[in-house]
Structure formats: C-alpha cells, structure tokens
Design a protein that fits this description.
The chain is mostly helical and 210 residues long. The chain is built from 5 helices and no strands.
C-alpha cells in the first residue's frame, strides 16, 4: 500500500483516522472525514513518537506495521545485557581454563618428580636392606673366625712353652685366620660406608618430599 501524507484524501485516510482514534494511550480524537490535514499529520507524528519510529508525519510502511500491530511501543528489555556479561564471563572462564591447564602441568611434573623420588627411595631402601643382610653375614663370619683365633691363641701360649714346634704350626694357622678376618672386616667396613651413603640418599628423598 502507498504511503499517506498531508493533503491525501479518501477511505484509506478514514481508516487511518479510525485506527489512530482507537489507540488507547495515544489520546487523539480525530474527525473521521477522510482528509489528511494538519491534525491527522500531528496525530501520526504523535503515534510515531509513541511507538519509537522515525517522526515524519507520513503514514509509511513502518508506521502502518506498528499501528496494525496494536499501536503499542516496543517492549523494553528488563534483564541486563547478557552479551557483555557473556563476554566478561568468557574471559574469566578462559583465564580459569589457562590457570587450570598450567596447574595441571605443574601437578603432572610434581607427580613425575614424586614418582622418581619414590623410585629412588625404594632403590635406596632395597640397597640398605641388602647391605644389612650382608653385614650380618660378614659379622657372623668374622665372629666365628675371631672366636677360633682367640681359642688358638690361648692354646698357643701353652704350646709355646711345652711344644714349640706345634706352637709354630698353630701360629701359621692363627696368622692365616687373622688375614681372613681382616678381609671380612674390610668387606664389613665397605658395606658400612655403603649403608651410610644409601641412608643419606634416603634422607635426601625425605627432605625433597617434605
């Protein structure tokens, strides 16, 4: 349909005047005479302002559409702008995601380090247990040799006065046993140092974990 403006006449203008009169909140009382005069133009402008369209005084397509829709102004949004809120929260979520990923990497690295430390602790613990068992065996061996030497030394003191030849033979046995005892003691000392080193490694692991 064609636009209606000041100076137009006819049934379409009458129809417009009737519809404008029927808009409750507009408050106009036009004479339905089919003449688009200054009062009708003023009523159109008032309606255009009411429904928030461009104020021209011309009954154009947009004005027609608003009038035929009931003549009510467009509703106002009563809820805050979620577009800006969404953008803001998306930034927060993105920062949280990056922070979470960074923390996840840190935790993964810490877990790997902890696993390595636990492996070191287990190895050191196994080493200490092995050395303790070996030391028990070495000490038992040395104790047996030492007891034998002590007994033979007592016998030697008697034989040295009564049977020098046997005493000399026994002395060779005592000297050989003494060499063996020193070898066992040397292994025992080395194991003891290895135990100290392993214990230090365990303490390092404990300190690193704590």
């Amino acid at each position: 349909m064609a636009n209606l403006k000041r100076g137009d006449q006819g049934n379409e203008v009458k129809d417009l005047q009737k519809k404008l009169n029927a808009v409750p909140k507009l408050g106009v009382k036009l004479v339905v005479d089919g003449i688009f005069g200054p009062k009708t133009e003023a009523a159109v402008k008032k309606f255009q302002k009411h429904v928030e369209v461009k104020i021209t005084g011309v009954y154009d397509a947009e004005t027609r559409k608003r009038l035929e829709a009931g003549g009510e102004p467009p509703p106002k949004m009563t809820v805050e702008d979620y577009k800006s809120r969404l953008e803001k929260n998306q930034k927060v979520l993105e920062n949280n995601r990056k922070g979470f990923e960074d923390r996840s990497r840190e935790l993964a690295a810490a877990q790997k380090t902890l696993q390595e430390l636990l492996a070191r602790a287990k190895a050191a613990q196994d080493t200490v247990a092995k050395l303790i068992n070996e030391n028990k065996a070495y000490f038992t061996e040395w104790l047996a040799i030492a007891q034998k030497i002590a007994a033979n030394q007592k016998t030697f003191e008697t034989l040295a006065k009564t049977n020098p030849a046997k005493a000399r033979e026994l002395l060779k046995t005592i000297e050989a046993d003494h060499k063996q005892a020193e070898k066992v003691l040397d292994r025992l000392r080395k194991n003891q140092q290895a135990m100290i080193d392993a214990d230090k490694d365990v303490k390092k692991v404990i300190d690193a974990v704590s």
